[in-house]
Amino acid sequence: MIGNYGVPKDETEEHGIPLFYESDQIHISGLIISDYSFEYSHWNAKSSLSEWLIKNEVPGIFDIDTRALTKILREKGSMLGKILIDDEDIDQYDPNQDNLVAQVSTKERKVYGKGKHKVVLVDTGAKYNILRCLLKRDTTVIQVPWDFDFTQEDYDGVMLSNGPGNPEMCSITVENIKKAIEIGKPIFGICLGNQLLGIAAGGSTYKLKYGHRAHNHPAIRVGTNNCYITSQNHGYALDNDSLTDDWEPLFIHINDQSNEGIRHKSKPFFSTQFHPEASSGPTDTEFLFDDFIHLIEESKK
């Protein structure tokens, strides 16, 4: 059942960041659901899901057997698809052929906050909650485009954001990350940021058959019995076996043993494939932002 909460108000907080949204636009090309709720009710709802989609010119259909569709995808893996109306047809679009990061990254350098720790946020499709989680930890966040040479900035740490698509499309970002690794200041990567840090460190990635897309993926911290429930949304993964001797897995996905994070054995660099800033939750791993700030504080001593 989709639509029963409606869509929240478009309000911003003190830094100009939306209170209830993770992006400034809808990024899906279409929505396919089983049961649509025509009545919505929520304390901060402003409009219905249908009204929001129409306003943003995004098509949606309901009364589809999504369980049957899911079974096909579970058997065949991720597939291209399209929504057709009556006898109308459209060209098949393959997003894997495009640099999706270039489409969603910020177009200009922006500065948020006036905290004591200067963090460069490399925006390859960053969720707003990454900004929120950094700003409430006494930081000044310098948000830059995916192809911006951030190593020329005066910074204390680097945040590599989440983002869509194939990490191999971001070769410019990878080259800048290599330079940041040489500089040696703390680096924290999330989702796509995990893959880009891994590639910059000499590793390689591969496309998952299904991808990880849910709020309930279990990830275990390597070397411990600590398992965390995480939010994930990615179609590629870093190959654990491709890591060089200086790096090691930080988290592993319990279900398929795929990589869920890496860390450098001696330097202040680490990343996660899941979303510790998860919004919506779970928020089990937000403490990793504290770990990042701690690394920055230690590096200043």
Automatic annotation (TrEMBL):
Record-listed E.C. numbers: 6.3.5.5
Carbamoyl-phosphate synthase small subunit N-terminal domain segment(s): 1-84
EC category: ligase
Pfam families listed in its UniProt record: CPSase_sm_chain, GATase
Pathway: Amino-acid biosynthesis; L-arginine biosynthesis; carbamoyl phosphate from bicarbonate: step 1/1
SUPFAM superfamilies listed in its UniProt record: Carbamoyl phosphate synthetase, small subunit N-terminal domain (SSF52021), Class I glutamine amidotransferase-like (SSF52317)
CDD domains recorded: GATase1_CPSase (cd01744)
GO molecular function annotations of the record: ATP binding; carbamoyl-phosphate synthase (glutamine-hydrolyzing) activity
Transmembrane segments: none
GO biological process, any: glutamine metabolic process
InterPro entries: Anth_synth/Amidotransfase, CarbamoylP_synth_ssu, CarbamoylP_synth_ssu_N, CarbP_synth_ssu_N_sf, Class_I_gatase-like, CPSase_GATase1, GATASE
Oxidoreductase is among the record's keywords: no
Catalytic activity reported: hydrogencarbonate + L-glutamine + 2 ATP + H2O = carbamoyl phosphate + L-glutamate + 2 ADP + phosphate + 2 H(+)
Keywords: ATP-binding, Glutamine amidotransferase, Ligase, Nucleotide-binding
Family to which the UniProt record says this protein belongs: Belongs to the CarA family.
Name this protein carries in UniProt: carbamoyl-phosphate synthase (glutamine-hydrolyzing)
Species name: Saccharicrinis fermentans DSM 9555 = JCM 21142
Organism classification: Bacteria, Pseudomonadati, Bacteroidota, Bacteroidia, Marinilabiliales
